[in-house]
Amino acid sequence: MTVKRVAQGIAVAAVAGLLGLLVWDVAHKNEATGFVNQIKAGDKPAAPPLALKPLDGGGRVTLASLRGKAVVVNFWASWCGPCKTESAALERAWRKHKANGVVVLGIDYHDVVGDAKRFVDKHELTYPILRDRDGAVGSRYDLTGVPETFFIDRRGRLVGESLQGPIDKGDNVQKFEQGIQAALGSS
């Protein structure tokens, strides 16, 4: 009978722990998605901070170091099929808009560094690629999956509509250009 009560106690503690994690996760997601709701309401909330190392090494890149530029933040991974198709469109956007002060940042999310480097080489990507090895930055952006793209204006604020899925498919083609224009034209 004692073993049964110990097992019941462990089960109750496990359920209580899981319930606590669920409550924390829901509360955390509500905080994180707050900026998405603010953008939809027409506000321009501050972009979540990022400080990441480039895939090819070197010092950290921060959003603060890019103040004054419009920034496109694209989360991707080498194992993501749609990321492969959109990489050429991101490269074209980078080449087209960089003279106007647009920086495209590719954020390699939860990936093996060798696979990511092969992806960059294969797709001939020249825009900055940063590594979110542990997913902390993706969590701050309340990432729903890859690819996902965000637009940040010259003052470091989120503008436009975040894009889930590849930027070169469906409605995202037009929304991508609108996001870049919102980032460039926002004051």
Blueprint (SSEs and pairs):
Layout: H1 2-32, H2 34-40, E1 51-52, E2 61-62, E3 70-76, H3 81-97, E4 102-109, H4 113-122, E5 129-132, H5 136-140, E6 148-152, E7 158-164, H6 172-185
Parallel strand pairs: 3-4, 4-5
Antiparallel strand pairs: 1-2, 3-6, 6-7
Tag the structure with descriptive keywords.
two-stranded antiparallel ribbon; alpha/beta; five-stranded mixed beta sheet; single chain; 2 domains; Glutaredoxin; globular; 19% strand; 6 helices; 187 residues
Q: Would you give an account of this structure?
A:
By secondary structure, the protein is α/β, with parallel strands linked by helices. The chain has two domains: 1-32; 43-185, 3-Layer(aba) Sandwich (Glutaredoxin), CATH 3.40.30. 45% of the residues lie in helices and 19% in strands. It has six helices and seven strands. A hairpin with a 5-residue loop joins β6 and β7.
As residue ranges, the low-confidence spans are 20-24, 26-32
Which class do the helix and strand fractions yield? alpha/beta
Instruction: Report the sheet-strand fraction.
Output: 15-25%
The CATH topology assignment of the largest domain is Glutaredoxin
Q: What value does the average pLDDT take?
A: 86
Which percent bin holds the helix content? 40-55%
* Number of beta strands: 7
Our count of helices gives 6
Per CATH, the architecture of the largest domain is 3-Layer(aba) Sandwich
CATH class of the largest domain: Alpha Beta
Separation of the first and last Cα atoms: 70 Å
Sheet with most strands: strand arrangement: 5-4-3-6-7
| SSE order, one letter for each helix or strand | HHEEEHEHEHEEH
- CATH homologous superfamily identity of the largest domain: Glutaredoxin
Principal-axes geometry comes out as: globular
Sheet of most strands: 5 strands, mixed
Compute the number of structural domains. 2
Radius of gyration: 20 Å
